[in-house]
Amino acid sequence: MHVPADRNGRPVLEVEGLTKHFPVPRGIIGALRRDKRYVIRAVDGVSFELGRGEVLALVGESGCGKTTTALSVLGLVEPSAGSVRFEGRPLHETLRRDRSLRRAIQMVFQDPYESLNPRMTVGEIVAEPLVVHRLAEGAARTERVLAALEEVGLRPAEEFVGRRPHELSGGQRQRVVIAAALVCEPRLLVADEPVSMLDVSIRAEILLLLNELRRRRGISILFITHDLATAALFADRIAVMYLGRIVEIGSADAVLSAPQHPYTRALVSVIPRLDPELRQERLILQGETPNPIAIPPGCRFHPRCPLAVEACRHTDPQLERKRDQLAACIRV
Amino acid sequence: MALLDVRNLTTEFVTPDGARLRAVDGLSFSLERGEALGIVGESGCGKTTAMLSLLRLLPHAGRIVGGEVLFDGQDLLKLPPDELRARRWRDLSIIFQGAMNALNPVRSVGDQIREAIRAHLPWPRDQVDRRVGELLELVGIPAWRAAQYPHQYSGGMRQRAMIAMALACNPQVVVADEPTTALDVMVQAQIVDLLDRLRRELDLALILVTHDLGLVAESCQRVLVMYGGRVAEHGPVEQVLRAPRHPYTQRLLRAFPDLSRGRELVSIPGAPPRLSELPAGCRFHPRCHLAADRCRTEAPALRLVGPEQYAACHFAE
User: CB contact, 8 Å: A29 with chain B?
Assistant: First the structure.
């Protein structure tokens, strides 16, 4: 798909070799016994770019590092190594000097039942970012709040400003969350499972709303999800993560129609298909994702991989071109 | 005669100010040995309340106000409480929603399964211990892990342990409420396979309560779609998925992210109704593209629309 370049012709977001290791506390007894220090290698060398108005889905199971990657992109987690550049500037360094950059990157949270303060009105919730960033006051503030509510489809906005979250349906609440993210006019939205807590019948309308926003405003979206089927319908490109690494990245069509990495193949094979005739043999991997404290040597997927051979125990595969996408596997 | 025959089950909640909210309204279905029935619906459709009613495990504010739950021909709703307690778990058991997080963190998993057995069966200690090992092996957990604590188990293993606990007393009917929600995709597939194998090997009658049509498509023979406390559609899975007759089922299927249809995102306008604001007539009419005057006043009855397929819509053919 064609991604329009931004003013400088560069991607909005460039993540290069992003690594985040969390030390595991040994506790005082562990320190006295001089126990080995362990680190959780949550993200272990992740690189990707995101164009203006593009939707990239980071897909993976729990512990794959997708949330830590998202938090790094938001500037909330300091990387151990590697860099995150936003509109060409190093994100973390710039944020230390210039807090205003923070409003350019906003987050849409997963659970609209938990992320909205029940005591605040919709108007107060959406106005809060403007207060925090000292962006607008008085009538101008009210105007921006109303405009944001209109934009997410809570119309007429005047009717919604005075309501509290419990008076709204799940879909309306998630619209409020999006309005609060939108009111600062961000250029990048990080959406962490934005529809997984919603009823199936209303998920699509939230995704369509996000889609509309990126079309109209050119907002880029980093979409974090465990659901490959939804990612396939919503994202332009998909990056599949496993144990802190991207194992496959490419256009949504390429990844879904011809998955290359054995892990992606397994994930695609277990996507539920309603039509029995389209059902394919499911490749169910045994066991679960290993603990990121003890990442297997060689290819980190080899202990669960149906294609693994001796070489996979020693070779740590890098992303290389396979068909229309990149995959990190020496066996395909 | 069916193993389990639920007729016209109706359950209400009484609010603190005395209002009566009807959560389940005239639910009927039957279930044979070795059969899996999927009960599908969105939040607040009454699916979980219906299952708690079957086992008479409703919270304090809930009342079963009508209907019968015939197990082997005997009405469980008429049994005195202690007799019911003795039968629960031995005839019918349930895997609660989010149950894997309900394990007691300071007691070993084996201990907790042992307790479930001893509460219902007067077995000597060594027989109970043997049974715990057997149950764990049955769900794919090595027996030695009985001595371990829940934090030493992964999420998938905790869910397997809960399934083992539900099977402790050899029940004939097992209700699983959202058994795969909150699990990783690959673990979900493992649990679906496990339930399917157990159903075949133990000839279990299984009720899967879920919002996930994919789970139903893959592991059930029949499906019952609920909306606003009532049955919208009921029939053999393949038939209902291929040729849904109720507009709600049709649109719910379209909202499911199905890759075979191409990149199409479809939603149903509006939101599922709240119990306190159930619409008159057909519960689905405010969101239905076919709704006519009749739908606003007259509740449609469930009627035969195909071989063994029933739908509650004035316009279903």
Answer: no
Predicted pLDDT at B153: 92
What H or E segment, with its residue span, contains residue A182?
A: helix A170-182
Structure ipTM = 0.88
Name the phi and psi angles at B173, rounded to 5: -120, 130
Q: Which chain A residues are within 8 Å of B264, Cβ to Cβ?
A: 233
Contact of A128 with chain B, judged by CB distance below 8 Å, is answered with no
For an interface test with B, the pick among A175, A199, A237, A304 (most B C-beta atoms closer than 10 Å) comes out as: A199
Residues of A in contact with B252 (CB under 8 A): 200-201
C-alpha separations of A190 from A43, A194, B29, B109, B314 in Å: 17, 9, 45, 39, 45
Q: What is the 3-state secondary structure of B194-248? A: HHHHHHHHHCCEEEEEECCHHHHHHHCCEEEEEECCEEEEEEEHHHHHHCCCCHH
What is the tens place of the pLDDT at every residue in B261-276? 777 788 898 888 988 8
* A270 touches B at CB < 8 Å: yes
Question: Stretch B31-49: mean pLDDT, rounded?
Answer: 94
Give mean pLDDT, residues B21-44. 95
User: B188, A270: Cβ pair inside 8 Å?
Assistant: yes
CA pair distance B21, B95, nearest whole angstrom: 26
The two structure tokens encoding residue B128: 């109970």
Q: Is B187 on the interface with A (CB under 8 A)?
A: yes
Neighbours of B16 (CB within 10 A): 6
Chain A environment of B186 (Cβ under 8 Å): 61, 266-267, 270, 284-285, 288
Element (H, E) at A237: strand A237-242
Over residues A276-301, the pLDDT tens digits come to 777 778 899 988 888 888 899 999 99
Q: What is the pTM of this model?
A: 0.91
pLDDT digits (tens, 9 = 90+) for A36-94: 888 999 999 999 999 999 999 999 998 899 999 999 999 999 999 999 999 999 999 99
Size of interface A-B (CB pairs under 8 A): 115
